Amino acid sequence: MERTDIPAAPALKPGRGRRPADDVRRAALAAAAELLLAEGMPSVTFAKVAARAGISKMTLYKWWSSPGGLAFEAYFRVFEQTLAFPDTGDIRRDLTGQLHAFVDLVNRHGAVLAGIIGAAQSDPDLAEALSAQYVRKRRRLAVDRLARAQEAGQIRGDADLETIVDQLWGACYHRLLMPALPLDTEFADRLIANLFTGIAPRTRSA
Amino acid sequence: MERTDIPAAPALKPGRGRRPADDVRRAALAAAAELLLAEGMPSVTFAKVAARAGISKMTLYKWWSSPGGLAFEAYFRVFEQTLAFPDTGDIRRDLTGQLHAFVDLVNRHGAVLAGIIGAAQSDPDLAEALSAQYVRKRRRLAVDRLARAQEAGQIRGDADLETIVDQLWGACYHRLLMPALPLDTEFADRLIANLFTGIAPRTRSA
């Protein structure tokens, strides 16, 4: 149980021969994600993940110092896969699709995310992991897509793109973390309508 | 220490006569707020608050079941007093002033607020208190001011006012709770600029 410094090419599992390390790692993350989304954070144990993925617990210890670290990585992997930023060439349509997917995912599995963000407020290590592995990555992907739209003339040249991230996804996190009103696809549509059209009356917007 | 069911008109403190209950309550909250903002949440004890406010600990036990409850109420009282929603008749100027005050307050004392919001994610009682005593109250005050601006023709009739709350203050909470970029008055100005003008190019906004 204390062996954390295992050589690079372990063959701990007898039987069907060595699987490439990337495959094993992917299988572990997939198994952890399935457990996490089906049964919640406490269900992610090294024993359960190892059994489900067909790998040894030793292999898990090699990569993750705790089941929490494995669950954390698995969770954000799911978010990344579900929340791609499409580029059909129409920014408003792409943002609508992406925000609908985001709202759906948060409604199904947002309690785990809210718990992680909540715990990060009093846990500097978790805050750093959340920032590096999730917050900053997601911001960068969003701003990249918004920048292409700005170059294509679909977003005003003087609009601040980082601020748009806070006014779309940040507004959703507000309803998740400080709940008062529904976080649904209608809300996502209103976020986009307010922000694209502007809330000033037309006669004043020139 | 166990007496929590004290009659309505206590005269527990000898000397300068009875102070009206409202005065005593206000003094307790003011003292708790001073301690909280100067020295942090753990400094708010019944003994310290009683000494600073010139009242008895018994009086505090009458109103608050724990120092945490007293600190919580005191904290949001400070926020309420600092974060009035002015009405000069110019919504954009009023929002700018209010958001600047909000950002300044959050930058000075936001760690306590972030801690409360964080803890609320795994504490249903705290979540309920936060929702009732802070989130819903603040939303209502903001929407009231925005509704007057809409009636005055300073906000489009089809703009969703509740959504504006998420896109201004909610966007600030996003930078507080999932930090990546500064939460400052320049950010507040960009929030307002994006939202009032709209981020769509002018030729498409008609």
UniProtKB/TrEMBL annotation, chains A, B:
InterPro entries: Homeodomain-like_sf (IPR009057), HTH-type_TetR-like_transc_reg (IPR050109), HTH_TetR (IPR001647), Tet_transcr_reg_TetR-rel_C_sf (IPR036271), TetR_C (IPR011075). This is TetR-like C-terminal domain-containing protein. Residues 1-20 are annotated as: Disordered. PROSITE patterns: HTH_TETR_2. Keywords: DNA-binding, Transcription, Transcription regulation. It comes from the Bacteria. The keyword Cytoplasm does not apply. It comes from Nonomuraea insulae. Residues 45-64 bind DNA. Coiled coil: none annotated. Residues 22-82 form the HTH tetR-type domain.
